[in-house]
Conserved archaeal protein
Amino acid sequence: MSSILMLYIIAIAAAVSVVWFFHIRRVMLMRMRGLVSLLERSFRPRDTQYMLLGYLVGFRAEYLLGDGPASRAWILYTTPPYHVFFYLPVISLGKRREKLEITLRLRSPLPGEAHIYDPGDRGVVRAVVADTAGAGRRLYRGTVSIAGRELEALYSGDIALAKAKSLFEELVAAGVDVRRVSIVDRLHALHVSVVPQLDTVEELVKRVMGFAGELQSSR
């Protein structure tokens, strides 16, 4: 291959990557703004704090909530760097996806600890391992089947496991791509991790908050 042809190929690839960057950056920013708008409309927080993660790779948020089963909500949204054209093969090979995590701080104790999660999602598996490392209690290990999916489960008792499973099933039935549901009594926490779809975000929040209310009323 001649040096001139190589220069042409490099120039074309560079031009494509620049056009791709600006187009996808706009798409990603619009998606992020849309997600924030949906979350705030759903939670109706009294106060909000946001922190951007890197450049176009997501954000953290903390919401101070009003009356209801939860006093605070923590949001973590992360996305692969789709705007980097030459990184796309890595994203595809690694099966990297967007991730939206919602953690609620509930006002009353919970019926134990349970984590139901997709064993094929490496990021979720790492997070569960980290979150249960300091549990200070024995957690049983098992599997549950939900909508034809075989999921891993770590739990302190049958009641906690049944509660986590019921929320997982409810979200799947609502069309949400759920990767993890956890309830943790020692932290008064309810946690869900999903691959976000803008058309199901409001339904996701509605069902998670409704489930939080059911947990509190069952105590």
Q: What stands out?
A: The helical segments are 3-43, 88-93, 122-132, 158-173, 201-217. DSSP finds five helices and nine strands in the chain.
